[in-house]
Amino acid sequence: MVDEVRRPPAAVVFDALGSRYEKAFASSEAHRGSLRWLTERLPPGARVLDVGSGTGRPTAATLAKEGHRVLGVDVSPVMVETASRQVPGAEFACADIHTMPLEDGSFDAVCVYFSLLQMSRTEQAGLVERLARALRPGGLLAPATVPLDVEDFDGVFMGQPVRVTSFAAQDVVAVVRAAGLTVESQESVMFTPAHPDARPEPHLFVHARRAEGTDAFPGGPDGTRRD
């Protein structure tokens, strides 16, 4: 569970934003398109992990409506409470994905929509690799981010101070491939959140798949790097 005394920065930001975040991003057609990409390829009753699940909408709500078993994970207690209320057909946990136990090969798909931006580049790459290992053979990974070449950038997001780190678009794709996944498609769009202080921002949606074979990851079948 999240340490309430030393909460991650993302928990502080998204506790404050609450449902305003959902409203600001509700009109993202690219996000809905990414979810369509997933639902068209998932087997019936698939097990899906939603990292940074927020209010549960649209990601968990869309997948649960399709009959999939969704586990949403978020560091914000406010977001988890909201998601549990709004999407009763999914399960939500208030936890830090970095320390949450994940069994290898346990999910048919993992969604990571805009939940990497307050992590260091090393943390982002390490988490993507860990999430790739959590996929079953043939499983799908759908990460989305703001593809900017910035590190520890101090800014303001919907009135909240944030420190953002990201990769340029080609480096985001490289991180996914380095985790042993095949990138099947990607979409880059400009999106303006519905918020008075919002400006147009680039969004990148990547869709990737774990190989069907067992030796899918760099370094050997157990995914351990030999660098």
From TrEMBL:
This is Class I SAM-dependent methyltransferase. CDD domains: AdoMet_MTases. Coiled coil: none annotated. InterPro entries: Methyltransf_25, SAM-dependent_MTases_sf. Residues 48-139 form the Methyltransferase domain. GO terms for molecular function: methyltransferase activity. It comes from the Bacteria. GO terms for biological process: methylation. It comes from Streptomyces thermospinosisporus. Keywords: Methyltransferase, Transferase.
